[in-house]
Write a sequence for this structure.
C-alpha cells in the first residue's frame, strides 16, 4: 500500500540524494490540511495527491472535485491507496489546454456539492506555461482561474490542494500570498 511521508526541507534533500530508481512512499503522519489553499510540493510520479485525498475522504461522507492537468489524476494510484468507495467520492475533470482548464474552473459550481470538502488542482500552472498561449494571455487566464478558485473555496469552505509545475515562474509568485500552508511530501527507499 502506498502512503505519504512528510519531511523537513533538509530531510527531503537528503532522501532525494539517496533514492534509487524505484520509489516507495511510507506514511509517517497525515498532514493537517487547512481550509483555503494548501500548496503541495512533491517528487514527480509520487501519488501524493491520491494519498492525501484518500486519507481525508476514507472515513467521511464527503467528496472531492479534482481538475487535472499533466495527467496527475491516476485512478489506478487513487485505488491503490484507497478503497472503491473512496474512488466514488472523487469527481475528476481533465484539461489538455489552458482554455479547457479555465472553462473547468469557471464551471466548478456545477460540480461542488453540499458535502464537497476538497478541491484538487495539481500542476495548476502547467497548461498556462507550455507555449499554447502568449505570456500575457497565460497570466490573464491564470489570474482569472486563481480568483475563481479562491472565491469558490471561501464560499464552500473547501480545502484546496494545489501544486505548481515550476517554482521559478511568476504564476506561483502571483498566488503565493493566498497560500495558507505549504506541505512537502517525500519518498523513502525500502
Amino acid at each position: 500500500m502506498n502512503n505519504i511521508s512528510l519531511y523537513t526541507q533538509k530531510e527531503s534533500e537528503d532522501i532525494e540524494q539517496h533514492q534509487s530508481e524505484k520509489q516507495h512512499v511510507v506514511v509517517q503522519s497525515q498532514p493537517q490540511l487547512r481550509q483555503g489553499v494548501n500548496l503541495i510540493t512533491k517528487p514527480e510520479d509520487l501519488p501524493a495527491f491520491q494519498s492525501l485525498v484518500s486519507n481525508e475522504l476514507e472515513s467521511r461522507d464527503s467528496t472531492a472535485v479534482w481538475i487535472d492537468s499533466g495527467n496527475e489524476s491516476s485512478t489506478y494510484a487513487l485505488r491503490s491507496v484507497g478503497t472503491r468507495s473512496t474512488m466514488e467520492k472523487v469527481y475528476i475533470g481533465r484539461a489538455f489546454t489552458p482554455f479547457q482548464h479555465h472553462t473547468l474552473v469557471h464551471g466548478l459550481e456545477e460540480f461542488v456539492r453540499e458535502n464537497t470538502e476538497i478541491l484538487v488542482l495539481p500542476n495548476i500552472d502547467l497548461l498556462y506555461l507550455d507555449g499554447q498561449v502568449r505570456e500575457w494571455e497565460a497570466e490573464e487566464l491564470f489570474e482569472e482561474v486563481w480568483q475563481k478558485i479562491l472565491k469558490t473555496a471561501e464560499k464552500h469552505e473547501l480545502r484546496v490542494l494545489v501544486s505548481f509545475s515550476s517554482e521559478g515562474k511568476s504564476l506561483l509568485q502571483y498566488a503565493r500570498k493566498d497560500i495558507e500552508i505549504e506541505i512537502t511530501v517525500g519518498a523513502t527507499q525500502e
Remarks:
- The chain has one domain: 31-179.
- The domain at 31-179 is CATH 3.40.50.300 (Rossmann fold).
- The CA atoms of residues 141 and 170 lie 13 Å apart.
- The mean pLDDT is 80.
